[in-house]
Amino acid sequence: MQPHLAFTGYLGRRLHLGVCGSVAAYKALELLRMLTATGLGVGATLTASAERFVTRLSFEALGAGPVYGPMFDPGHGPFGHLEPGQSAHAMLVAPASANTLARLALGLADEMLACQALAFEGPLVVAPAMNPRLWNAPATRANWETLKARGVVCVEPACGDMACGEQGRGRLAPLEEIYVQALRAATVQDLAGIDVLLTLGPTRESFDCVRHWSNPSTGTMGAALAVAAWLRGARVHAVCGPVALWLPQGIERVDVTSAREMHQAAMDLFPAAQWACCTAAVADFRPEPFGPGKFKKDSGPLAVTFLPNPDILAAMGQARGPGQRLCGFAAEAADLEAHARGKLARKRLDLIVANDVTAPGSGFAAPTNGVLVLDAQGRLERWPVLPKTEVAWRIWDWMLALSS
Ligand code: C5P
Prior knowledge:
This protein is of the alpha/beta class. 31% of the residues lie in helices and 23% in strands. The chain has helices at residues 25-36, 56-61, 84-87, 98-106, 112-119, 132-136, 138-149, 175-185, 220-231, 259-269, 312-319, 336-346, 388-403; strands spanning 14-19, 41-46, 67-68, 90-96, 124-128, 153-154, 158-161, 167-171, 195-200, 205-206, 212-213, 235-240, 252-255, 275-278, 285-287, 306-308, 325-332, 351-356, 368-369, 371-375, 380-382, 386-387. The longest helix is centred in the C-terminal third of the chain and has 16 residues, at 388-403. The structure holds cytidine-5'-monophosphate.
């Protein structure tokens, strides 16, 4: 899993996973591993058809508990059909068959999974997998619309080659998409109603049509912040430099290349943002272009003039309105605290997160970060080296405390 999705703070929260009969049922085992790695406690229910493809034992062996089979299985006690609703914060059905979608839409309670889902009052996520003709059937279309209208989180199946050799829509959605939707459903929505703007990744500044000036930022820290805010219910806009990171569809993503493009995109979005956090490693300078085409190596020595780029965060600091909260990052190689204090004041920030890019486990491309955090009220903390997802979570906790 990409490090910006590897959240670990879900100990004490629970999710119930329903699995239906589909050749994609084996993928539910991988989903279970992804979900338990967050700390979530996961129970599971396999329909009778699911048990033709995968076994209860596999789910138990990978950490699921309790694991339910048929309604009247003596091992479940008299109230197994009601139990997930008493302990789980969210329910996920993946893969969901055409049959189970129909049961859910109608509210049938004639077998264990459908009955548990009917009795479940929390958020429900469904991710179907089926043959395209089953998916396109008018009855399935109607059931899908019914579930959406009821507020069920409906993860559309993907297009592609089917196990039966046909092509079309019906493949189980990518596991990352199902994982983040399930995680969001199990997350306390304490940032609901907040508009968050992020910049992330490097920028590229062209010398000519084939060369650029840039830096090794992968955007992991900013992407972890974007996903964490979205999981917690915020509306998120992410202005991304060139990065190879996947972001959930629910995040409004704007892809840019140069610092000037990032500046334009971010400043267009800034007036509507309540919180903005600039994590991008923006190139402070751009080479003066050589003109159209490519600079040839036999054209003589290469002399480059660098022009300053706009400082996006400083521009936000100047433009900010009274309700807006601003967070910046500082990548430093020495004197962390002094530089952090200077930038916090100069750029008119509420919060600054500084890291020593030369320290082990910190900085560009690492999945972890060791940071110093300082706010405008003078509170300062040094955190140990933590996963970037955990750093992200704590930064939003701090921003939330500042706003209240
Ligand atoms: O001044 P310095 O580049 O160290 O400040 C770092 C902070 O400013 C980061 O939050 C970075 O995203 C932001 N920044 C920016 N535009 C620039 C340079 C830095 O938004 N041109």
